[in-house]
Fold this protein.
Amino acid sequence: MAKPKVAFYWCASCGGCEEAVVDLAEDILAVVGAVDIVFWPVALDFKKSDVEAHEDGSVAVSFINGAVRTSEQEEMVKLLRRKSGLVVAFGSCAHLGGIPGLANFHDRKSIFERVYKEAPSNANPGGVLPQTQTTVDGKELTLPEFHDTVRTLDQVIDVDYYLPGCAPPPDLILGAVTAILEGKLPEKGAVLAPDKSLCDTCPLNDSKPEKVSLAEFKRPHQILADPEKCYLAQGLICHGPATRSGCGERCINANMPCRGCFGPTKGVRDQGAKILSFLASIAGLEGEEKMTDEEVGRLIGQIDDPAGLFYFYSLPASLLKRKNLRQGA
Ligand code: SF4
Ligand code: SF4
């Protein structure tokens, strides 16, 4: 019997999700043995024409990582969507926009100005900017268009499942591949990870006070954090209350607060707003004493880059999606 065809593709990402597949270690042999990999640009020399040659819907599943930033990425994910029975958004960037999505605080014009003209390491006296078409020695060269806005995968194509994480951990990847091969998948649109908050599984949860009181926010480099004590109780902003579990508490175990790469649990529409409202509900309560408005303002002022922090991984997927630079907002 023919093995199911599987494709991997990367869009705007760091490559960590590709590493995560290799991190399956010897388990990758079972995966490779059970499927026919028909596209994996980072590892195998397939071309776009190879993908085009497959019948529509004949690829069992495409795992697509990275956010969508360029016209080439958009074209490829639309092609893979057409060819695939299932599409899995693989990792935080495809799922939520991820770190590349923080570029939505800027636009193409300001990014190009900074990267190609203003950056101190540049040597570009002519101020040349990338062009989608240019002629060199009579030959026409093309580049993909760099879109103004970073989008999540499901803002471009229909997505069947989401594998969260920066990067998704090997046990979740293996669980997803096994579920697909055995046809034991949950309802369409599901995130293939537990629907509990990270605090529920965190080893520091026992030290999380019933009601955390915060009179001061600190950043991880400003204190020597106690690895045995809930970070929020130490004044460090931790996204655990607003983040889905399943990562193995990787950051917590490395003595760092969570930054939210698994995204929100099912009932939460906007992860950044959720962490903000959680912090607002606990900040400044000493016993039953309430802070004055000025004290609250001073406390919030201690948070460096609040929008970037609260939407660390999820700006394109949020209600905000991007900063509206044209209206000066
Ligand atoms: S807030 Fe962070 S450190 Fe505290 S219990 Fe939740 S995940 Fe753990
Ligand atoms: S602790 Fe948070 S940021 Fe770190 S891997 Fe887990 S979900 Fe992602």
Remarks:
- The pocket of iron/sulfur cluster (ligand 1) is lined by residues 198-199, 202, 204-205, 208, 230-232, 238, 240-241, 252, 257-258 (CB under 6 Å).
- The chain has three domains: 5-99+149-182, 111-147, 198-310.
